[in-house]
Sequence to fold (219 residues):
Amino acid sequence: MGLSELLSTFGQNYLDGLLATWSMTAVSFVLVMVLSVLVTVARVSPFAPLRAVGDLYVQVFRNIPGVALLIIIAYALPYLRVVLDWRTCVISATVLMATAFGSENFMSGINTIGVGQVEAARSLGLSFGQVLRRVVIPQALRSTVLPMTNLLIAVMLTTALGSQVPLSPPELTGVVDYVNSRATGGVLAFLVSAAGYLATAFVISLVGNRIDRKVRILR
Fold:
């Protein structure tokens, strides 16, 4: 099957798969950003048990293979009467893993902030929460634009876990299985999906670099 025949027959499936990938990526990344901040706040908290919980979360979820985590969520949780739809299972697995790496990015950003700034904020009478909100988190966000851009691309690629469950519509990688189960798409079917990932990652990189140039903190 040639490219023109492949696209004429399955073009709509590829488009639906690309939109599904974008949708899951957007939802996942918003949740990752929120949870990454919360986990990082826990890891720098003056409350030792909270720091331990944050560190444990990162150590656990950055070391679990994505497929294994998806299997646990999709097939083990129902035994505990927690039944999620397939799309939610994929998003949950993606978010749990990516949050661990997002927290590491934020920790790196926090480490770039001079101790003198934090001490100055405390000398003004700011509480721990106020120091985080007004000094630490804003600067950490500005310092981690490029790492978070890379994380966004990683989140997009991780949504390919959806090919392991019966998503409807399938995401880009799942479309390949769909095509090859109905025709002889071969390697070309993979290349079309890869082009979708590559084009999306390229746009994300361009936008991320532009944002970084605007908000970068010069030290």
User: Anything to note?
Assistant: The mean pLDDT is 89.
